[in-house]
Amino acid sequence: MAELHNVVGAILRDIAQARVTSDLYSREVSRYYEEDSLLRLFPIPRTEIKEVEVDLCFGIKDVRKDINREQDKLVYIARIIERYGEKLVDGIFESLKGTYRHKISKSVAWQTLVGELDTLDNRSNLRFSISNFFESNQSILLSENKDGSAEDTDAVRYDLNINNALNGVVEIAKRTILQSEEVITLVKAEDLEDSYESALRTGLDDILIAMDNDLNFEVEAYMLDVTVEAEELLELPENVLSKIKITAEIKNYTWSQVEEKDNQVVRRLIPE
Questions:
Q1: What is the C-alpha separation between 199 and 96, in angstroms, rounded?
Q2: Phi and psi angles of residue 160, each rounded to the nearest 5 degrees, phi first
C-alpha cells in the first residue's frame, strides 16, 4: 500500500526531475552549438515547464489515525500559542487595572494612564512579542509528557513551564508598554512598581494554567493508504474510486551575485 501524500509527492518530484533532465540535455547540446560555426548563431533549445495538470485516480484502501506526525503537532502548538497570545494581551491590560487588593486600583492617574496605553499599536506589538517569545523558546517552555498518564491514548500531552512563561510575559510587558516616560514617572511618584507587577502575575497566572491544560490535545491527523495501480483500480467499482487534479508550476531560481558578509561568501537563490 502507498500513502496518498507520498504518491502526490512522487508526482511533483518527477515533474521537477523532468525539468532537471531537460536542462542536462540542453547543457550537452550547448557544446555542439558552441563548436559549430553555424549553430553558434542560434539559441540553444531549452524546454520550460510552466504548468502541468495531472488527474490522479486512486482507490482508498484504509484510513488510519496518525499521532506521530511532528508537523501536525507543531501546527496545534502554533494555534494554541496564537490563541493565548490574544488572551495574554487582554490579561495584561486587565491586570494593570488592578483589583481591590492592589494599590494601583486606587490611583486615578494610573487608571487613566493604563487606558491611554490600551491602543491597537500597543496590543499588536505585545501580541507579536509574546508569540515570538513562545515560538523562540519552545524547548525551554514546553516539554512532551511521555509518562502515558493521559486517559486518551491518542492525546498528546505537553507540559508548560508556567513559571518561566509567566516571567517572560511579565518582562515583555515591562520592557514595552511600561517603559514610557509617563509610566516610569508615575510609578516612581506613587511607588507602584511592586503593585503592578503583583497584579500582572496574579492575572496572567490563571491564563497560563488554562494554556497548560489546552496543551493536552488530540492530534486529528489521518493517513490515507491508497492504490493507484491500474489492475487494482479496474477491479474496484466506479463509485469507490476517487480523483484529484494536481496543478503544478515550476518556478525558476538563479543564484544571486556573491556578497561579502563577515568575511564569508554568501550566495542566495532568487526567482527569475
A1: 6
A2: -90, 130
